[in-house]
# Entry
Amino acid sequence: MDHEDRITPNQNSSPTEELAISESLVPAREIKLATTLQFTFDGLLNPPLQLREDPKEGCGGHIWPAGMVLSKYMLRKHSEDLLGKRIVELGAGSGLVALAVARGCKIDSPIYVTDQKPMLPLIEENIILNDLSGSVVAALLDWGDSDALTTLPSHPEVILAADCVYFEPAFPLLVSTLDGLMGENSMCYFCFKKRRKADLRFIKMARKVFEITEVTDGINHVACKHQSIFLYILKRKPQPARKNNISSHST
# Structure
């Protein structure tokens, strides 16, 4: 896999807090204190992205491997073709992917970074930390809440989702949110690390509503497969097929 990104704590952090992370690794140990990290994404961003990681916010406050993979993929493959496209990130956590895209890709409309209410202060802090207030907007979105979708761009062309597969009871809510958000021209770049057999049930569930293609170009596919990291592109199925599948799924 690509060489590791160095993650550098802020000046108030002790040297023992330094660690390295790559696409294939989760943090090597628990970090109990909030830390400011820097990401170059293997040299794709200069100056590096700064990101506040705050474990007190739970899983969403950490940097996870699928976010690294998706960020690098977008920077490598889509740095020049996002002009004129509306972008929304789901389950953004710290905002890693959206902030990387805002910094390293050509965009001309704000990226909406969504998560539950407890995560919004961390997202907003990271937006300010990278001076991206004009390019990135933090927005509240609980999966399954169709009313909240009205605050986001209707049928955005690009949806980003990294490590959103971790809690099986939320799978139907995530599918419902994707179904309500995606239009005929929408593409969802969906990356996750399989940690348990149940994680693949999300893909099985999503296939009833979306056309799903696994991505092998633009990532180190062999290394990702070894680490059980998968990147998919989701698109809406043609309308008749979708109606039949949604009906069969609900019965």
Remarks:
- The longest strand covers residues 229-236.
- The domain at 61-250 is CATH 3.40.50.150 (Rossmann fold).
